[in-house]
């Protein structure tokens, strides 16, 4: 019974998705609410504030657990490592409010039998229970007993369901029901009121603590310093609120027009009807005009269209969308065939450029998703609700702040004990104890930690690298593996036609060179090149895929103007007409109509078209795509027996090779009406030949890859191109150094009784010797992979082999990835999967690409860099307007500089708090403290100015062959803080005790008259009198004026300057500190002012600073002590703590190894004499669960790939918001 109750109390939302959540049911109790209200009043709102910071405490205090179907409050918890809680109120919708009353005894509420709406309506009340989570509405499914999304058509609908159920449109009654339950089709981003943003900022735990601190300081008369901090805090809050408000306005303006689009829909009762887009519901039939901005996601059911998906992909290449086939099958529509279902879907926010009706009727689509369920809505939600960033720096920083707060608490009890021991009043004891509590956490912490990122972002912008995720810049400093797309990234985007290799009589013929000036003779090969594409004419220019454009231009044909009417010849108006140009070879065809397209898909690696010669009753089908894929659909007798050898010959020279095929279709059918399916067209084809295209390396590629290699950053190629072409490009670009071995991995699925197999083949380098010599000479002076075992071989595989290995040899995958360099024929999903697998091995992965098929991998990587002309591509955190890979080392350099700056600033602020805590604690021992202006000098003139400028040091121009530390909690960094705290403590304690031994010393606060009577002749009466008669708020002057404070103040100030200098180290990740002119000037200015105040002997200054003049020799002793402290601290920091060779020696001596998974695998494989396997085949055996595994590779050592400890890409959240 108890187990059933727990199961009813808990459910999983969005299982398996990125936004997976756990939902717990609770019911509010009146007595608990009353008690919580009383507690909030008695605690002066502190309890209410705690409930605001911790929503789960709020729910647990007000409610009791109950089954979800009875809950009025739902507590949500993320399933990631952050376990973040959110409280949501359950609300109810009543169908009785609709204009058209519904009979409670009727059957289904809506016609769609798959719809969750039918299961969500509770009868006879006609009530629907809902929650709203991150702009998405969920309804309670009474049958499956869980919350489910509404605002979309269920994926369980088959193709025939969509055509039959929604093909004629929705009825008015069903539209109203769906509109009420699903909500309006709007993507509304309200402009946040300034007061609300202000309240959210002020209620941040850090600012609440700061408000408490400032209130305490003001009550004790620290007017000037408190006002300075208040001004800085107000400026910081105002800037933050303004930035948040500006982002809110920009996002609101971005989506505002989306909600005001006029659409035409088709309904059952009224036929065509004009409707505002915000009234659309899932299942409506949308009629598409010529040019149109889509207000929702929709699936095409009639006709085809061409859309610009630049808003989603950053790539403004027209994409052809085709109708969803009307298939009598129960298979869900997204998996009706191997074809990518996205080819039928029109995404919200994209632009329809051109529509092509399939018959007399218009182009129609069924509304699939509305509101925030759409592609554009999902994009906006990812901006509104970013996932927290899992980066070790922020986790460690949070722990450091807790440690500083702990020091403050220790200081509180120390002060409490001291003041109680001396018998001071309870009020003074509590006040002074709270003052010491506030010393350890510096108030400039938030501003200081964001400055490094701000400066790095500013420098990146100057290099035309734009960032929509600033907190990810620090992660770039840890990148140790970069994945590159090939075409358009490593190689030129544009392809040059090199030649065509026709096939006749089952044999390859002589190569036709396009550079010879001779036109390609008319024939099926020419027909395929002229028609097998998805090009369109916009504003008089041909637009489409660059490869298609080059191929079409090579035929010298032209695309006919759409104004020419060929309807007399029976050609549909939507067809693209091509005809020979003036330079084309003679042909009997006056023009050719492209009647139907089966568009190219990265997953399918091919496209096909159906054409008709105008004036003839003859139809042809053409296919182009990856040669291996095209040959698979051709009759075997038409494929030359030396096909593989010929293909390898061209791909090994780095050419891009396209296969072409053809077959005539039976006359009398009307292909434009969609009678021919793709499966019928793409079968029994005749192989026509190969199209050879030259894809040159970009001039920047080789130097950048060489720079990354010398910096010990792995480079990997992930491409959709041919494997041999990718290997050749990798060798020519020196991604694979000269002399290194390439092992080709080919894995095959199990067939019949044969298990899955994997073949390891060592590739011999057969390129000509001249090219080898050039490559060898070009890398002689590079120090690539010195002495690292296992770096002299690289694995290369195709997407097919990758799929087989992940399914049947999963334990083999990490071994391959440690040395995998080339992954070819990879689908977009496989690219994302590969990046994730690298992350599981604890690599920090960068991904650089330019195409739509890279979007998933760009988002998955720790640092995705899109080469796009747009200023900010939504596909990735970083966008480079310079379309080459030079942006990669720029980004890594700036990331390293920002990371080191963040560490330096954090170490300084920690030390600053510790220095002040030690100095103040020593003075507390005799019931004293530093003066107002003494604190002001240290806090504002030094710490604030230094922290805001320390991070502006530029990145070092050369990448070091190692990364900066990625953890604050590491031996060198902890030792740095600990030893510097010890040095500072020793100097301050020495000064505090030694000053008492001086013959001229007296306890000023106790023997002030004696001190005046026995003063030295070197003292100034005016200065001393001025100090003794000076007030300081509610505290007496004697609590500040003393020889101890006069001695400790210059020492603590010089300590702050010392640690600021030694923590601002330059090489190897930043330029030398003297190149940061502003920081250097402020540091020397602070030093000069401190020495001037110490040695000036000017009464006004001593009076204002609340110092007592001492003899010059004592001041020189204080300066000498500070100088010794500086020398010791600098030597220890620079020669020991920052000495990488020293720490490597210690690691080697103690046998300390990296805990990263990829390092574990490298060490294990280096000791395995049988690795890497070459020229052999391995088979899997069937395991207990029916999966294929390879016992030869089962691991006795415990080196598993962690599944839970994955550093996932996520969007940003500062660590202090976790408080």
UniProtKB/TrEMBL annotation:
Residues 17-141 form the P5B-type ATPase N-terminal domain. Its EC number is 7.2.2.-. Residues 264-383 form the P-type ATPase A domain. It is found in: Membrane. GO terms for cellular component: late endosome membrane. It is a multi-pass membrane protein. Pfam families: Cation_ATPase, Cation_ATPase_N, E1-E2_ATPase, P5-ATPase. GO terms for biological process: intracellular calcium ion homeostasis. It catalyses: ATP + H2O = ADP + phosphate + H(+). Its main location: membrane. Residues 160-212 form the Cation-transporting P-type ATPase N-terminal domain. It is an enzyme of class 7 (translocase). The chain crosses the membrane at residues 225-245, 400-422, 434-456, 905-927, 933-952, 973-995, 1047-1064, 1076-1102, 1114-1132. Keywords: ATP-binding, Glycoprotein, Magnesium, Membrane, Metal-binding, Nucleotide-binding, Translocase, Transmembrane, Transmembrane helix. One of its GO terms (molecular function) is ATP hydrolysis activity. Belongs to the cation transport ATPase (P-type) (TC 3.A.3) family. Type V subfamily. This is Cation-transporting ATPase. It comes from Phascolarctos cinereus (Koala). The lineage of its organism: Eukaryota, Metazoa, Chordata, Craniata, Vertebrata.
